[in-house]
Amino acid sequence: MHPTDEHLLPYFVAAGAAAGEGPPVARRLHESITFGELGMDAYAFGPQAALLP
User: Fold this and answer.
1) What is the pLDDT of residues 6-48, one digit of tens each?
2) Beta carbons within 8 Å of 13's beta carbon, 6+ residues apart
3) Cys-Cys with 2: which of 7, 27, 36, 46 at CB 3.0–4.6 Å?
4) pLDDT at site 34
5) Model-level pTM greater than 0.85?
């Protein structure tokens, strides 16, 4: 539910930068909804993402 491209495109930039030589590694660090509609997710990208608690 992104009203315009500039809200979603940074995700693809981060995922592409994390790819390196293999497929991108991503991990969701936080997931919540504020005011019943605003997603407050946080992601980590890259090979070190899998090592985060």
Assistant:
1) 777 887 887 777 666 777 777 889 999 999 988 888 888 877 7
2) none
3) 7
4) 92
5) no
Instruction: Collect all residues with Cβ–Cβ distance below 8 Å to 20 and sequence separation of at least 6.
Output: 46, 47
Separation between Cα atoms, residue 3 and residue 20, nearest integer Å:
30
Q: Are 8 and 1 in contact (CB under 8 A)?
A: no
Which two tokens mark 28? 């969701």
- DSSP per-residue string spanning the chain: --SSHHHHHHHHHHHHHHHTTSS--EEEEE--EETTTEE--EEEESGGGGG--
The tokens of 47 are what? 């090979």
Which residues have C-beta within 8 Å of that of residue 31, sequence separation ≥ 6? 39, 40, 41
